[in-house]
Amino acid sequence: MSSSTEWPLWEVFVRSRRGLSHTHAGSLHAPDAEMALRNARDLYTRRGEGVSIWVVPSTAITASSPDEKDPFFEPAADKPYRHPTFYEIPEGVKHL
Amino acid sequence: MTVVTADAYEAAFDAAVAADERIEPRDWMPEAYRASLVRQMAQHAHSEIIGMQPEANWITRAPSLRRKAILMAKVQDEAGHGLYLYSAAETLGTGRDELLDKLHTGRQKYSSIFNYPTLTWADVGAIGWLVDGAAITNQVPLCRCSYGPYARAMVRICKEESFHQRQGYELLLTLSRGTPEQHAMAQDAVDRWWWPSLMMFGPPDDASAHSAQSMAWKIKRHSNDELRQRFVDICVPQAQSLGLTLPDPDLRWNEERGHHDFGAIDWAEFQDVLKGNGPCNEQRINQRRRAHEEGAWVRDAAAAYADKHQAALHTESVEATA
Amino acid sequence: MTATPTTHATAPTTSATAADPAVNATAALALGDDALVLSHRLGEWAGHAPVLEEEVALANIALDLLGQARVLLSLVGDEDELAFLREERSFRNLQLVEQPNGDFACTIARQFYFSVHQHLLYRQLAAGDGPFAGLAGKAVKEVAYHQDHAEHWIVRLGDGTAESHERMQRACDALWRFTGEMFQPVDGLEVDPMALEALWLERVTEVLERATLTVPSGARTGAWAAGAGRQGLHTESFGRMLAEMQHLHRSHPGASW
Q1: Which residue among A7, A31, A43 sits closest to C56, beta carbon to beta carbon?
Q2: pTM assigned to the model
Q3: Under CATH, which architecture does the A9-86 domain have?
Q4: What ipTM was assigned to the predicted interfaces of this complex?
């Protein structure tokens, strides 16, 4: 006999140190959230890589599509005035 | 939304690969690229988990507690590496169960090296030094593979694997400098593992079925023969430091090429093991299949529990420590 | 195999390298052997676990226990001499931890019974000022996780499918008679075994009930199990386990590894 359904896939996010945000570490299978957390602890922090873990069902993630890449991200590229380097400040002016 | 033609997709893909950009899961990619990647990542993942067996064979007999801890941690890493790689393959929509099923039914392969037996404790050292050494030579370039999830998994794996080769070398060195019986055990292991390790780089370039296309797609960065030569050149001085010999009378430095020449590899043996006639092919697959089948009730139970207690399925976050 | 033991055949506590005279060797060996033997059993799972994630989890527990064993044995003497050159009768571990892995339910039941006990014991040792306080303080965090892992599985297997429920119940029942030994007093461990036992029973009952399992009703001890492991009397499978564990080391007397 073999399993009828595969355990769902979870995405794992690990905070490596206090003060840093959680970053995506990888994924794993687990039957439920509690086990996913434990599996994530065993797999992704066994060399001391983390102080906090999030697990999220992979199906719960809504991702932008590569097809939408241009409308999503290109309009942001031509607004240099959002960046501090856009502005010219006379030499010698401090604390700006 | 812009309407994009198939040709434009292909051009964008080609341009990304040419510019050394990474291809990510939801990007368009040629079907053959996808298939080739799934095949390679699956085979790589299978190799990690089948590769646990020859070494696990010695966990219960490790001759010191220090070695026992090292070996357990190493075999555990291999399970972890299998997990990373199955996850990478899953980003292309192929579930782990499907891949495991293909392994269990012989439709997908794993590295033939693991069809050789570990007959003595020294084999644990020879696997670390030679087999992991060959694997690392193969894997380091994969950290720059064009497919993002595969490259990222390989970065993690290579980082973790650096201890594997060193522990093997240290183990052999201890044996080589130990009693005459221990030294003989180490030499015997190197004699048995040397040629199969050279075969790990795959058939010669002119006979390799997938090489050319994989190189063009930057899944692969160096040819089989190139990597094999690199490995031989690295191993020769390492063997000298170990005080052990490599079992090849034709092995010598070629000043002109700036490389070591080495003897002819027995490709008939390679093909034979690949076909399933190695010393442990059946044993390895049977153990894997048995573990999977005997674990079915456990996996089913946890899934049934989760169904009953749906609330637990909600996303959860826990601060692990202060 | 013809290797014969050269040391520690009868007197495990007389090693020339004994590290700390303040440590009670009986207690250190009892705790160290528990950890060593259970770690070895868990190591036998490598390559056989029901799912890849569990390979990693079981190995983590085995490695924690092996680390504890190495510290404890080193308090008494040379860790390898003690592990590889003692005869069966000189091992002081509980009979519970030497029980064969069986199916996954048996392994989990064994881990559950032992970890709940070890956690209560180490918590007390850590809170005290005895010779094991430092070691227990570190180990208690590891053991808390082992207990958590075992309890999560007890609940899932007990309250999973009909088959898993039956297997889990059978495993809990079968190992029940080895659980009384955990509360026999050990020379050098300043804890109240009766108080530990009451807390242990309370926790075990709570978890088994949560798992829809029945708390076993049989005797928790017997002629062969009442503190016998602590006195060097073990069950049949243990000799075989030691034969495998010690064979290579003993085949090369005096060798370094």
Answers
A1: A43
A2: 0.91
A3: Roll (3.10)
A4: 0.92
